[in-house]
Amino acid sequence: MLCLGLDPSLTNYGWAIHDTEAPVGTLTRCVARGRFQTPSKMEFIDRFVHQRDALSALFEKHKIDKVGIEFPVFDEFRSETMYGLFLFSCEALKKAKVDVVFWTPLQAKAHARETIVRPQGWPMDKPDMVEAATADCAARMNHNEADAYLVGRLAARFWLYYDNHLDDADLTKTERQYFSKVHTFVRGKRAGKTVRSGMIFRENDRFFPWSTSQEESTNGSKE
Length: 223
What we know:
Number of domains: 1
CATH class: Alpha Beta
CATH architecture: 2-Layer Sandwich
Radius of gyration: 18 Å
Strand content: 15-25%
Number of helices: 6
Helix content: 25-40%
Strand order of the largest sheet: 3-2-1-4-5-8
Order of helices and strands: EEEHEHEHHHHEEE
Largest sheet: 6 strands, mixed
Structural class: alpha/beta
């Protein structure tokens, strides 16, 4: 499976294609990577359109099976701008009819932390993310590309789980928490209530099977 990872940015929009069939630590594991770039002097709307169109062109060039994209976190610097770019990106993804899952930056970092064995709570700065990406695919890359690659790798693991190619026993601790977490309260006013917060339970909220029509879409075979 070829899974495209996206790290949206108006200046350096990172992208990378992860091949799940290639051995870990080999260059073939990252099929292609790069950045869509726009200068700050370009009119704001043209920057959004350029990045969206560049993403659409990527689908015409590569046979991409699935996608993972970094979801903007609010209250961070220029979050409104990032959310606008995220929406433009989603428009291109839906038009391409490709399945997509959204990951926050912290989720991508936590998953990457497992690759290079950093302590729990380690901040995972840019050099750490580059190291994690390089450890997985042996490719030298910019930090924007590294973030995109790691988002794509995490997304690929989710889609393999969604399609029943992976079971809970195959997942890492972080993946189990993100993909299939179910918690039943045993104390207090919420005792007995079960909360299904794993990604597999959030279809049409945090992941979208756009390769099929709304009528054909399922609610996730793991529910």
